[in-house]
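Reminder to self: tokens first, then the designed residues, so the page reads top to bottom the way the pipeline ran.
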């Protein structure tokens, strides 16, 4: 299996606007423009390799995550050169995916999540850049 570099770490926040000052101070990076992803029911912004994700509603995955756990670490994303090949490799190793196919993510990337039941309870995202 290949060694894939970390693409980003995602933090679930109640509000990107309210969290920006904290994370700009911590990272020294300027927050990107907020990208709306209605299909995933989230808005996202990046500060270097840190992704802030806010729910667009309380009913989506991230909204439910925050209701259950509060704001905090949501997932770790690894950059893969070919997402379809990576999915096959991970499945051969016994990992399960949440989605059957890659879907559109932020910044025009293709993404798929590995099921936390097979990753030691950590949500892992695989990311293929355009």
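Designed residues (130 positions):
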């Amino acid at each position: 299996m290949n060694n894939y570099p970390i693409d980003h770490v995602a933090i679930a926040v109640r509000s990107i606007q309210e969290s920006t000052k904290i994370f700009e101070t911590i990272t020294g990076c300027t927050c990107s423009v907020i990208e709306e992803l209605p299909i995933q029911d989230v808005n996202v912004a990046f500060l270097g390799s840190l992704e802030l994700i806010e729910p667009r509603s309380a009913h989506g995955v991230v909204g439910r995550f925050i209701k259950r756990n509060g704001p905090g670490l949501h997932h770790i994303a690894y950059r893969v050169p070919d997402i379809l090949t990576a999915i096959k490799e991970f499945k051969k190793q016994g990992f399960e995916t949440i989605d059957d196919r890659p879907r559109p993510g932020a910044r025009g990337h293709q993404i798929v999540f590995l099921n936390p039941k097979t990753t030691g309870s950590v949500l892992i995202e695989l990311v293929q850049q355009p």
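The beta strands are 6-12, 35-37, 42-47, 50-55, 72-79, 103-104, 110-114, 124-128.
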